[in-house]
Design brief:
By secondary structure, the chain is an all-alpha fold. The protein folds into two domains: about 90 residues, no CATH class; about 60 residues. About 80% of the residues lie in helices and about 0% in strands. The protein has a two-stranded antiparallel ribbon with strand order 1-2. α1 crosses α3, α6 crosses α7 and α7 packs across α8. The mean pLDDT is about 80.
Length: about 170
């Protein structure tokens, strides 16, 4: 397990140094002002900086033998690790087919969000309608229970027992 972990860390270091060389060459070739005009270069810069910080922190903090991890449970490190996931975007930036697929997924997620908002509005309407018919109290817990009941009936999850309790 530790050997595989060290192999992954060495691959991580290799990619970080490759991205650093690309970053430096692009920065020298374009110049600072032109480099900062492209928004995708900010992602590249964050990937390189987070990778270098990760390498440096692994050198500073020794590996914990019990948890098999470096630098304990520091929250800032977890945030830095999230930026390293952006490497995928950096690699996929030049692949037109993958970019088209990601654009399609993004467009679908936007449309799904609009459907989710519309569904939430309908749930709220039926929640208020049901509470006015049953004439329950106006406390927040009753509103949450009514929201849950409408959602439970819409998803057809044990809806018959929920309606049986109302009658």
């Amino acid at each position: 397990m530790i050997e595989r972990q060290s192999q992954l860390e060495s691959l991580n270091d290799i990619f970080t140094y490759l991205f650093l060389v690309e970053f430096l060459l692009k920065l020298i070739g374009l110049g600072i002002t032109e480099y900062l005009t492209d928004n995708s270069n900010y992602i590249d810069m964050m990937v390189v900086i987070s990778g270098l910080i990760d390498i440096e922190l692994r050198n500073i903090y020794p590996q914990n033998k019990q948890s098999q991890s470096y630098y304990g449970n520091i929250p800032v490190i977890k945030i830095i690790k999230i930026f390293q996931v952006l490497r995928i975007l950096k690699i996929l930036k030049n692949m037109t087919i993958m970019r088209n697929i990601l654009i399609g997924i993004y467009d679908s997620l936007v449309k799904i969000f609009y459907v989710f908002v519309l569904l939430t509005v309908f749930i709220l309407i039926y929640m208020i309608l049901g509470m006015s018919v049953i004439k329950e109290s106006e406390s927040l817990s009753e509103h949450l229970n009514a929201f849950y009941l409408v959602f439970q009936i819409l998803t057809i999850e044990n809806w018959n027992s929920a309606l049986y309790e109302l009658s």
